[in-house]
Amino acid sequence: MLLAPAVVLFVTFVGWPAIQAFWIALHTWTGFSPRAEWVGLQNFRLLFGDTVFEQAWAIAGVIALGAAVGLICQFFLPRFNSLGLSRRSLGRIRTWAWMPLLLLLAGVLFWWLYAVTDGDSFFRACVKNNFMYMVVGGVFHFLYAFLFAGALNLPNLRGKKFYRTMIFFPSFISVVGVAVLWQRMYDVRNGLLNSLLQAISIEPIEWLSADHMFYAIISAGVWAGVGSQMILLVAGMQRIPPTYFEAARVDGATERHVFLHITLPMIKEVIMITLTLWVIGSLKVFGLVQAFAITHDEKSSVISVRQYELAFSNRDNIYQMGFATAMAVVLLLLIVILAMALRNLRGRDELEF
Amino acid sequence: MRLFNALIATVAVILSGVLLWDLMQEKLAYPGKKVIIYAGMFGPGEPMQLFYAGPPANVAPEHPFGPDTIEYWHALRAAWPEVDAAVAKGYRECFGRPLPPPDEPDPQLVEQYRGLKLDYVRRLASALGRFDRSSRLDLYRAFARAHPRFEAQMILTFEGLHPAYTIGAFEDFVRLHPDYAVVQRWDGRWVLSANRGRFLTGSDVPDLITGSQNELRILMRENLALALDQPLPPGPGIKPEWVEKGILDSETAYDDPSRSLRSEFYGWVVDRARYEISHEDRHVSGNPYPVGQRVMYLLPRMAQTSVVYYNRVHFKMIDRDPDDIPETAAEFEQICRQTLAAGKEPIAQDGMTYVTDWWGELVTRIIGDDAYHQSVTGGLPRFAGPDADPRYIEIAQRLRRWRDENFWMKGFSASKWPGAQRDFGTGRCTFLHTGTWLPTEIAGTRSWDPEVFDLGCFFFPPVEDGTGDPYKMNCHVQGYAVPRDGDEHEGAVLLLRYLTSRAQKAMVEKLNYIPAVKGVAFPPALRDIESRMVNATADDFLSEGPQWYSPKWFKFVFTETANRFFVIRSDNSSPEEFVEELERRSQEHYRKIGKGT
C-alpha cells in the first residue's frame, strides 16, 4: 500500500510511455496530429535490413535455444537434481544460467553489426559508436577513477578534500557547457590545444575532423564524468573497516597487494553498480554528443542523437517519430540485455562486513 | 495509515493546483484581456556567436547607435547639455577615443531628442557604453513608460538589440491595443518541436508561430495552419470577411485603411510564401483546397537567399577592383588562386556545414534545377550508370579539384560553426557561401576596420558551357503562421497587421534582413544584390531544392553520401565513387521509401 503512489507515478510516467513506444514504433507518425499510419514491422525492417528479416526464424530459434538452456539451468535443474550435483555446483550453474543466451544474443548482434550489409547503415554505425563509447570511455573512466580513488584512499595523503573537489568539479558542469568548453579547446585554428602544440612547433591537429571527433568527445566525457565514478569508489573504499588494512600491513603486504587483494574484492559490489550505471549511461549518451556539433556524420553520431534528429529536428523537416521510436525500442532492449548480463555477473554472494 | 492518507491527499492537491495553474495561468495573469500566444524562434539570449567565437580584434564594441551613426551622439548632446559629459564618456567607453568635435547636428533629430523626458534621457546616457544586453530592454521599458504616446519607430531610433526589438514590438502593440495581452514564448530554433505536444492535443496552441516557410511546412502538411490568401471555411474565431475573401484580401494595412494588407508585400515574396497542396494533403490530411493549388500559409516577414560573400579588401590586395565580381565560375576559381598566392585562404568553410551548397550551385548552373529535380525524384538523367548525365561526375571532379588546390581554408574539415564566420569576418578568408542572415549574425564578431574587412556579396556566377540556370536565385521566406487550433485568431491577425506597420518596417530595416514588405530599405551589406532581388519575378527563383521537395532523400541519401566526399577523412570517396554511391543509395531509397520522398 505504501508503494502505491510510487507505483502509480512509475506506471503513468515511465511504464505506460514505454509500452506506448512499442506501439508507436509500428506506425509512421509525425507527432503533430493524431493521424498515424500502421506499418507493422516496417520501421524495424528499415533499421535491421531485409537479411535480418529473412533469417528471422533462425535468429528466433537461436534465442529460444539460449532461453531454454537458461530456464533449465535456473529453475529445473536445481529442483529436479537428477544428476546429483553438489550444492556449490548448482549455485554456479544458476549463476551462469543465462550466459549462453547472452552469448548467443551478442553473436546475433555482432553478425548484424559486421556481416549484414543492408538496413540502415547509419544506425548500425551509431550502435558501434555507442559500444565504442562504452568500452573506450569505460576503460579510461574506470582507470582514472581507480587511480584517483586509490590515491585519495592513501592514509598519508594531505589535501584530500581539495583533490577530491577538484576532480569532482567537472561533474557539476552541464554537458552542454562541457561540450562548448571542449569545442573551444579543440578548435583547429584558435583552440588552446593547438596553440600549445604550435608553441612547441608541432603541426596543429584536426581534433574535430570526422576521423578524430568521436575520440575527442569521449575524452571530454571522461574529463567530465570521472569524478562521479571516483566518488562512488571512494565511498566504497571508505566503508571497508581499517582493521583489514592494518592486519594486512602487519603481515607485510605492500600497498599494491592491499589494493588488489583487499580493496578490490571488498568493493566489488560498488564496482558492479558503478559499471552498470556506466553501461546504461554510455548507451543513452546524448547531450554531450549533440552539443559538440550542429550535425553529426556516421563516425560521430550515437543512437540517441540519431533518434533526436529524426524525431524532433525541424532542420531536416522529416519528423519520423515512428522510425525514431523503433530506434528507442532497440536501445531499450540493448540496455535491458546488458543490465541483465551485468546483474548475472554480479552473482549473489554479497560480502558482509 | 492516517499519515499515508494525508500524504496522498497533499500530493493530489499540489498536483491539481499545478495543473489548474498551468491551464488557467494566462486567464489569471491577464484578467479581462484577450490573450494572444506568440511562439517565437529567437529571443533573449541570442546571438550565440559572441559566446562561441569570442570578440576578435578590431571589433567596435556594442553600443546603442550603431557603428556609423555619429549624428545620434551629437544630436543627443545638443538637445540635452545636462548629459553632455555622460554622452562623451559613453562614446569613449565604446570606441576607446574621444567623441569627435560635432558637425552641425541634424535639427530634426535634435528636436526628437528634446521631446524626451529628462529622466529617461539621464537613464539613456548612463547606459551608453555599457555592454550588458539586458539593460537595453530595461531602457526600452523605461522609455515606454515615460513616453506612452511615442510609437515604436521612435523607440527603435535608440535601441539596437534584436530581442529587445521584438519584445518591444509586443509592448508597443499592447499599449496601442489595451484589450489584448501577448504571451511570448521564446522556444528557440526548435519552436515546432517545443510546441508539438500542444499541436497534438489541441490545447494551449500558439496563436502565432514564427519560422521559415520550410520549417513550418509540417503545419501545412498536417493541415494545422490557416490559409491566409484563400477563403476560409466558417468556424469559431473566423470572421465573415475571411470566409468571403480570405485574410490577406479582406484585411487592410495597419497604417492605412485605404490599402489592402496584400499590397504591403512584394509580389515575389507572396509567391515564395505559397505551399503547393499535394495529393496526400488533400486526401489524407483533409486539406480543403484542390491538389496542385498554391496556398499561402505564411505571412512573410523577410526573405533569405544564398550568396557568395567576399572580402573586398582581399580583392584590392590582388589588384582587382572590389566591385568587379566574378562573371564566371572560372573567374571565381582564378580569384581563389590569386588570393591563395597572396597568402590568404580563399573559402571559409566549417566542415560539412553548407559545404554541399557548392554542389547545389554548380549543379544548378551546369545541369539546371529541373533536371536535378528529375534526378533526385527518380527520373532521368541519373547520377551514374547508362542513363547518367556525365556532368554530375564532372561537377564532383571540379569540387575535388577545389579541395586539392586548397581553396577551402586550412583545417576546414575539423572546423565547426561559427569558425568559418569568425575567420571570414576577421579577414583571414576571402569568400564565404551562406545565407543573407550573415551580416546580422557576424555584426558582433566581425572586424569593423575597413583595412581588414569590407563585406561584399554576389550570386554564384554562371558556369562556362553550363546549360542550366545561369542567373536564377534561391529564396526562402520567413514569417508568421496562424495555427488552426489557436483560440485568438482575430487578435493574431491584428498583431500580424501591426507587424507590417511602419514601426515594424523600421525594425526589419534595423535587423539588416531582406524585407518582405515594401517601403523598407534594403540592408546596406546586401546592396550588391538589391536590384536583382527587389525587381525579381517568380520566374527568377529556383525551386526550393531537394532538402524540401525530397527531404528524406536529402537526409538519408545525399547528406550521408556527401559526408564521405566533401571533407577530408580516412575513408574518402573519389568523385567517381561519390556519384556511383549516390546512384546506388538513391535506387535503394526509391525501392524502400519511394520516389519523391
Can you put this structure into words, describing what you see?
The complex is a heterodimer of chains A (353) and B (597). Helix content of chain A is 71%, strand content 1%. With 353 residues, chain A is mainly α. Chain A has a domain at 120-346: MetI-like fold, CATH 1.10.3720.10. A two-stranded antiparallel sheet of chain A has the order 1-2. In chain A, strand 1 (27-28) and strand 2 (37-38) form a beta hairpin. In chain A, helix 4 (56-79) packs antiparallel against helix 5. The longest helix of chain A is centred in the middle third of the chain and has 32 residues, at 121-152. Chain A is globular. Chain B has a six-stranded mixed β-sheet with strand order 2-1-3-11-6-12. In chain B, strands 8-9-7-10 form a four-stranded mixed β-sheet. A two-stranded antiparallel ribbon of chain B has the order 4-5. Chain B folds into three domains: 56-155, no CATH class; 183-304 and 476-533, D-Maltodextrin-Binding Protein, domain 2; 306-474 and 545-592, D-Maltodextrin-Binding Protein, domain 2, CATH 3.40.190.10.
